[in-house]
Write a structure and sequence with these properties.
The protein is an alpha/beta fold. Helix content is 33%, strand content 16%. The chain has helices at residues 11-19, 56-61, 64-80, 107-119, 130-134, 138-147, 162-175, 193-201, 239-244, 273-286, 305-319, 332-335, 342-356, and strands at residues 2-4, 26-27, 40-41, 96-101, 153-154, 181-188, 230-237, 252-260, 295-298, 327-329, 358-359, 382-383, 388-395, 399-406. The strands form four sheets. A five-stranded mixed β-sheet has the order 1-7-6-4-5, sandwiched between helices. A five-stranded mixed β-sheet has the order 8-14-13-9-10. Strand 13 and strand 14 (399-406) form a beta hairpin. The two termini are 18 Å apart.
Length: 410
């Protein structure tokens, strides 16, 4: 696994900060914000692309979303021990895939080059690299090039559900025999002036002045989500293939649900029925047993009024009375909303929660919304002997994804 996030640029730091309730949201310093309606975000700190074997010409040319994806993928491949070329190769490159998506793609590049076009409609100053650095599939392409992954390569784009769908579809591709291992996840760099203006004018963003009390999932005081950037990458591998090469295994992916609200471009379906169906599909495939399983749910938990209520209703619809027994939390309270990277970062948190028996908290949950009356693990991490974890993601366009994991004993 690999991660670039507002709370850490490697998996151990990311996880340690989450379980200790560290908030990675702060004032934006990368560009002027005095004229913008929002001045806070979960930006990436102390990121140095060259530390992840990217050379200066590559760094100079690529949008940060690709750099973040490359960095997290480099961590994950190194962590996995997979090698697809040379005398130490342990996987056929045609059986090694990449399913890495982005909700928006090269937003910063698009913003910069569009400004040039407006200034000079002739287009003569538009970079010849504009298109191949802006398109959202380019991160997956560069990851495949770097790691000699010549198998199936897809960029799924489903807004905030992007990387959960990438993980789920990679799971199915391996299960059905199309690959032995797939680098899966997402990457995003949407916190730019245009992104802030667009989401703020859509009434989606919190306009809180205090960055440490701004992302408030399931809190009665919530006023919208906080933008975040980064990347989350997991490597899924067929179990027999992993065992044969002596791989370190964090957990087992055991279920996936994929539905659409078919209701509204941005608002979730209020009755939670379609969101609940994606959760039910993942739990059914995972063999969920109310009598035996101790369940952790990593919630989408954005901190918008409509999302948190609809999500709570969905958990009750999917689980019935068991919803009150499940451990639930939203790490977006600490990271902000990483958009296309959110699902993968949250899947990593879910797997580590299972491994260590620790539920990361929903910080700042000091005034719970009465309509969000489940156990959302307020403020402090909780220890519990978990057996099953799910992570659900809900994206603009009505896209719902849920992935399920089990703890594995080696």
């Amino acid at each position: 696994m690999g991660v670039i996030s507002p709370v850490g640029n490697d998996v151990p730091t990311f996880w340690n900060n989450l379980i200790n309730g560290y908030c990675g949201i702060d004032y934006i310093e990368e560009f002027p914000t005095e004229n913008l309606p929002v001045r806070i975000a979960g930006k990436i700190k102390d990121f140095h692309a060259e530390e992840y074997e990217m050379d200066k010409p590559f760094i100079r040319k690529q949008d940060l979303f690709t750099q973040y994806g490359m960095a997290a993928a480099w961590q994950a491949v190194k962590d996995s021990g997979l090698v697809s070329e040379g005398e130490n190769a342990n996987i056929d490159p045609f059986r090694f895939g990449v399913y890495v998506g982005s909700g928006i793609g090269g937003f910063e590049v698009q913003y910069r080059e569009t400004a040039k076009m407006i200034d000079d409609p002739s287009g003569q100053w538009i970079s010849p690299l504009f298109i191949p650095t802006m398109i959202s599939n380019i991160a997956a392409g560069h990851i495949a090039i770097k790691h000699h992954a010549e198998g199936p390569c897809l960029d799924i784009v489903t807004a905030c559900a992007t990387s959960s769908h990438c993980i789920g579809e990679a799971f199915r591709a391996i299960r059905h025999g199309y690959a032995d291992a797939i680098i899966a996840g997402g990457c995003e760099n949407a916190t730019i002036p245009l992104g802030i203006a667009g989401f703020a004018n859509a009434k989606a963003l919190s306009r809180a002045e205090d960055p440490k009390y701004a992302s408030l999932p399931f809190n009665l005081n919530r006023k919208g989500f906080v933008m975040g950037d980064g990347s989350g990458i997991l490597i899924l591998e067929e179990y027999g293939h992993a065992i044969a090469r002596g791989a370190k295994i964090y957990g087992e992916i055991v279920g996936y649900g994929n539905t659409c609200d078919a209701y509204h471009p941005t608002a979730p379906r209020p009755d939670g029925s379609t969101q609940a169906k994606s959760i039910s599909l993942a739990l059914e495939e995972a063999g969920f047993d109310e009598k035996k399983d101790n369940l952790y749910i990593n919630a989408h938990g954005t901190g918008t009024h409509l999302n948190d209520i609809a999500e709570t209703i969905a958990y009750k619809a999917a689980l019935g009375d068991f919803a009150y027994k499940a451990h639930i939390s939203s790490i977006k309270s600490m990271t902000g909303h990483m958009f296309g990277a959110a699902g993968a970062a949250e899947a990593i948190a879910t797997i580590l929660a299972l491994r260590d028996g620790i539920i990361p908290p929903t910080i700042n949950l000091d005034c719970p919304d009465p309509e969000c009356d489940l156990d959302y693990t307020p403020n402090t991490a909780v220890r519990s002997d978990l057996t099953l974890g799910i992570s659900d993601s809900l994206g603009f366009g009505g896209h719902n994804a849920c992935v399920a994991f089990r703890r594995i004993e080696q």
